[in-house]
Amino acid sequence: MKKVLISGANGLLGQKLVQKLKDNPNYQVYASGKGKSRLPEDWEKGYQWIELDVTDAEQVMEVFEKVRPDFLIHTAAMTNVDDCETNKTACDLCNIEAVRYLIHACESTGTHFIHLSTDFIFSGEDGPYDEDGVPDPVNYYGMTKLKSEQLLQASQIKWAIARTVLVYGLAADMSRSNIILWVKKSLEEGKTIQVVNDQWRTPTLAEDLAEGCILIMEKGATGIFNISGKDFLTPYDMAMMTAEYFGLDKSLIKEVDSSIFKQPARRPLKTGFIIEKAQSQLGYSPKSFMDGIGILSKQIKLADL
Ligand SMILES: NC(=O)C1=CN([C@@H]2O[C@H](COP(=O)(O)OP(=O)(O)OC[C@H]3O[C@@H](n4cnc5c(N)ncnc54)[C@H](OP(=O)(O)O)[C@@H]3O)[C@@H](O)[C@H]2O)C=CC1
Ligand SMILES: Cc1cn([C@H]2C[C@H](O)[C@@H](COP(=O)(O)OP(=O)(O)O[C@H]3O[C@@H](C)C(=O)[C@@H](O)[C@H]3O)O2)c(=O)[nH]c1=O
CATH topology for 2-168+204-230+271-287? Predict the structure, then answer.
């Protein structure tokens, strides 16, 4: 049995990883997060919970010495892009320094580090991007994720980077929402929403992303992999498709361009990923966006939301 340590296991991706791995006889799962577990109680037999604040260098080392994981899947991060812009010190600590501590720990335990990164390392001027695109972030969050990638690339440990895009899904007690949940809730409440038509993304179902990370782990793969959805869409397209699927009022969706938003952090316009490398080397096979909405819809019904 291989030991896998998951950081940020209360987050959307973290929860999907625990869900997929908890009954896999090949892996012993150590789910970690800041504070207590918010994972569903009936999963408890399939993993061990460990409190781990990745910004605490000492705690990182203690946990690695205790667990001695074969793999780390590092999902924890400061993921609110506007908060990163306005609180750069906290963002540096969580998105860069923590990666430094984890690399150091992986060096001492021989752990394969699987890191999560983002389309926001790119300028958005020339997407969609393959793994060889030249990074040039337009906001602080993207800059910190790029620096974290560079730390890994300069290290001597075994590493892989899974880059992803606009993740959507449903998990317990979520700390951030996502486009489908936001559109569905707003339209159900009869609220008008302004949705941009000049950003392009390849939105990613959280289960697909988890599967991509697991494929990297199973194959012991190293290097950079684009792990995103396959449909190249604007948020306006995504909102309209969501309304269509759930039979909601599309007239509440107002098509706008990004210039009307006054957000602290600039967003790159055209990102999105070419995923051929992951498809051919890992056997990665993501769902279409429409199928992703269908999967989410079933989960929403089951959760009685
Ligand atoms: N969501 C997206 O659209 C995208 C995400 N990514 C990347 O994918 C990864 C996973 O994202 P996702 O699951 O969606 O994000 P979430 O925000 O859902 O999860 C991130 C988790 O990290 C935890 N965390 C934050 N700080 C610490 C800390 N100091 N120690 C331990 N845990 C901490 C959070 O804890 P708490 O729940 O308590 O706040 C949260 O559970 C991230 O690295 C992100 O940068 C990349 C592209 C797109
Ligand atoms: C809130 C809002 C968003 N949008 C659009 C813009 C944007 O592309 C999309 C999602 O907006 P958000 O502000 O929630 O998400 P945002 O912070 O842009 O999402 C990012 O998160 C980080 C963690 C990543 O790594 C990226 O891949 C990326 O997807 O929805 C609107 O059109 N209108 C709105 O009122």
Answer: Rossmann fold (3.40.50)
